[in-house]
Specification:
Number of helices: 9
Radius of gyration: 24 Å
CATH topology of the largest domain: Purple Acid Phosphatase, chain A, domain 2
Strand content: 15-25%
Strand order of the largest sheet: 1-12-2-3-4-5
Structural class: alpha/beta
Shape: elongated
CATH class of the largest domain: Alpha Beta
CATH superfamily of the largest domain: Metallo-dependent phosphatases
CATH architecture of the largest domain: 4-Layer Sandwich
Number of domains: 2
Order of helices and strands: HHHHEEHEHEHEEEHEEHEEE
Amino acid sequence: MRIIFALTLVFSIYGVINFYITRRIYQGLTYLFPNLNIIIYSIVIIFVSLSVILGYIPIHPIINNFLRWVGSYWMGIFVYFFLFFLAADIILFSGSLLKIIPFPLTQNIRFFTGLIVILLTTCLIFYGKYNANIIKNVTYDVRIKESVLSDEIKIVMIADLHLGTLNSEKNLTKIIQRINALEGDIVCIVGDIFNDDFNVIKNPQKASDLFKSINSKYGVYACLGNHDGGKTFNDMVSFLKESNIKLLNDEYEIIDDQFILIGRLDPSPIGGFGGLVRKDISEILISIDKTLPIIVMDHTPSNIEQYGEEIDLILSGHTHRGQIFPGSLITRAMFTVDYGYYQKDVSSPHVIVTSGVNTWGTSLRIGTNNEIVSIRLQ
């Protein structure tokens, strides 16, 4: 019942905001096109607004891909149209109260206001698309307590590939090349490898071959994120095995007798992990040699309070750092650490949260970056 209420509330708010945006656009367009057909305009707007949902209802691969493409960009456009139109209306309302702007507003004021909003939004969308095709390299130096490492270990970390989303497979070649260029000792993929449905990946074999081409001394390890479950969960697991990626489902691996790597199940999988349920960390640690450094891959950083001084390093993703501004303000309020390096005190684990190597939802990056993380463990 709560889920139905929550979904009804979300879609209601989405519908109201869409109505507000499209009404403002219509007011501006009628200045240029006085005879604009309201029915045709409404059909186009409803189609664009619903593409966010319709793209995930099985219709036909070509139609679904088109709808997802439209929906991906509309999500970003929607946000900035709303923010800019809202800001414009506040300014116009304030101006009318101060008798600076005539009230009621004339049609030409509505037109030029809408034109400014559309130009600002267009500039941001083009920038966001450009920035989403760039991958940054980020490096952290982490000195663990009482280290028994014989030498410095380089961890290459990525998260949030979201294979199946717009441009995700196209970008995978570049991502793998960049990973190999960093020459890491071990590669950690910290969740959301997939995007809810394995079947939306256009060319799984090519993606698998790319993963197999990753070069690292100790191999490639992964944990599951909230988007790595559902009806095609078994296909996802088989794909990772075929791709030479060692999946750790609340399991651990001793790496070269130097450190221990734990992979956690995400606590909130969309559609479930085929019956697998996240364990308490104490159940995993009970059989671990705690004299070795312990590194944990845990996709969602909301769980870092569960780990004590026995853990040396936590690797997380999930947040995308909000992906498009002002999303970063929201993630910063939601998580103790939504991005970057964090350590509560000297006895607490080091925590590194990545903004992700790919986009989700809208294929834009505004105020954040796609990134590959390099960690020098000392």
